[in-house]
C-alpha cells in the first residue's frame, strides 16, 4: 500500500501535527509520501528526508512542490504537464482545526479522495465538546454534568470550585484552566474566550481516574488497543501530552477489573459505530465509582495512538482497504425534462 | 455588489437548485455570475443567457469555462494565464447534499471564500433531522416526539399509526411517507432506507398547522420575513414545493395572533443565533394547542425564500457585507523551536 500522510493545517495544533507525521514516518512500514498543509492552507509535497522541524520552522518547505486538490486526488505541475500524486489512501493527521473539525473530511468527500480519518458528521460532533455531550446522551453514554458559558451571553454564572474550564472546540489542553476560586475564574475566562466563544465548565474531580482506549472497526469487527491510564498532574498540558506520543517502549495495560475493561469497550463501541467508521479514534474516559464517563473523543489522536497497539501496521493496512466514501448520486434531469415538457418555460 | 451564485451539486435536489438559480437571476438586481457544480462535482461558469433547463439536461454546460477552487476563490484558465472569477460574495444555492451538509461551507472556509450560507457546524446540525432535534432540545426549542429507525440495527419497532417516516438527511420531502398501517410501514421503510440508513418516525398529526418563517441577522439585528402558512395535502411533495417558489405574487401573512407570531420569532432567534450567522434560513414550525414546535431548518431554502420578503435585494446586499469567515490562526513554530533547542532531535 502507498499512503500519503496529510499534516499541518491552520490549527493551534499545527506543530503537534508535524511531530505526529515525523513519528509515523518512523513507525509505518509502507511506501509513504507527505503532504504538508501550511498556515495559509497551501499544500506541499515534502520529501521524506526533509521531514524535520527545520524544514517548517525555517519556511524551507516553500521551495517544495506545490500540490492542489482536484477530483480524484492531489496533483502537481511539472514542465508542460500535470501529474497526480500517486497513493492508495491518505491518512488525515491534521489535529484540531481543519483536520478534526470536518474541513478535510468535506474536501476529501467532495473530491472523491479515499482517506483514513473521521467523516464530516463525526468530525463536527467530536470537535465541539458540547455536541460531544449531546451525542453521548443520545446514544446512552454517560458524561460529567456541565454548564456552557457563552461570550455573547455575558452570563455571570458562578460554578462550584474547583472547576475546569474548557474552550468548546480545542483539543490538546489548549486554553483549559483548573479554577480554584472566583479570582482565578475571571482570568480563566479571559484565557478561554481568547480561543473560543463557547466555554464548557465541569466540576474538577481530583480523585477521578482517566483511561484511554483507541480502536477502529474493520469489516464489522472491532479492534481495540490496550487500555492506558495516562500520567497526569492536574491535567496534561500541551508539551507533556505530545512529547509523550513519540515513545516507543511497550506500555503495560491499566490495572482494571475485567468487568470495567469490558464496560470501557462497550462504551467505545456505542460511540464509534457507525459515526466514526473509516477512522482510528481514541476515546478518553473517566471512571468514577465504577461508572464509565466519556471525557472526549480524539478522531485523529496524536501519532494515531500507535503506541497503544501491538500490530499498528497491520491495522492501518486493513483499515485503509475498508474505508468508503459516500455513494455518488446519479442525476437524471427527469424533473427538468418534465417541467420543460409541460410548460417550455424554464 | 457582484455576486456569484453557486448551484447544482451531487444532490437529490440538484435539479431544484437549477430552478432556484433561474429564479434568483430574475429577482436579484445585481451584477451576477453563475457557478454550476455538476454531478461529478466539477465547476463551470455558466453565462447568464444560457441559464436555462436545456443547458443542463442536454449536457451543453460542458462546453463552458471550467472553474477550480484555490485560495481566495474560483479561477479559470485562459490562453497562457490564469484568471480569477471576480465577485464580492458567493451565494451558496446548492440544496441538500454538498450545499447544506457542510461540504461547501468547509470548502469555502478552507479556501477563504466569502459566502452567504450556513457555516460548517450549522450545516451538519440542520442537515440531519436527528441532530436538529438534539440541537433544538439543547436551546429550549420544542420538537415533536420521535423514534429513530436504523438500517444497521434491524429494529422491529412498531409505531402508532398514522405516522410519518423521514430519511434523516434529506430535504424537499424526498423519501418521506405517511404510513397508516403495518403493511404500508414495510413499504415506507424500503423507500426510506434507499435514501438513508437512519429514518426518523413521528406521529402524523392531521390537524397540525405548519408555518414558515425566514430571516437572518445583520449587525446584531434580526430581519424577518412574513409568516406563511403553506398549502398542503397530507404533506408537500417535491414538485408542489418547488414549483411554488418561482411565484411572484404578494403573499398575505398567516392569520395568527400577535402572541403566536411573537412566539415563532422568539423560537427563530434561539435557533439562529449564533449558529446560523452568515445565512438566510427558513424555519418550518408546527403550532399545536398554542405551542410552537420546530419541524425543520432550511439553511439554503428554495430560491432563498425571496417571495416571503418585501425587500429581498436590500437584505442580500446588507447580509453579504456582514458575513465573516473564521479568523486565521497564526503559526509561530515556537514549540518546534523549543524542542529543537532542547534536544536537537526532531
Automatic annotation (TrEMBL), chains A, B:
GO terms for cellular component: cytoplasm. It catalyses: 2 D-alanine + ATP = D-alanyl-D-alanine + ADP + phosphate + H(+). Residues 133-332 form the ATP-grasp domain. Gene3D superfamilies: 3.40.50.20, ATP-grasp fold, A domain, ATP-grasp fold, B domain. It is found in: Cytoplasm. Its cofactor is Mg(2+); Mn(2+). One of its GO terms (biological process) is cell wall organization. The keyword ATP-binding applies. Pfam families: Dala_Dala_lig_C, Dala_Dala_lig_N. Keywords: ATP-binding, Cell shape, Cell wall biogenesis/degradation, Cytoplasm, Ligase, Nucleotide-binding, Peptidoglycan synthesis. SUPFAM superfamilies: Glutathione synthetase ATP-binding domain-like (SSF56059), PreATP-grasp domain (SSF52440). The keyword Iron does not apply. InterPro entries: ATP-grasp, ATP_grasp_subdomain_1, D-Ala_lig_Van_CS, D_ala_D_ala, Dala_Dala_lig_C, Dala_Dala_lig_N, PreATP-grasp_dom_sf. Its main location: cytoplasm. Its EC number is 6.3.2.4. This is D-alanine--D-alanine ligase. The gene is ddlA.
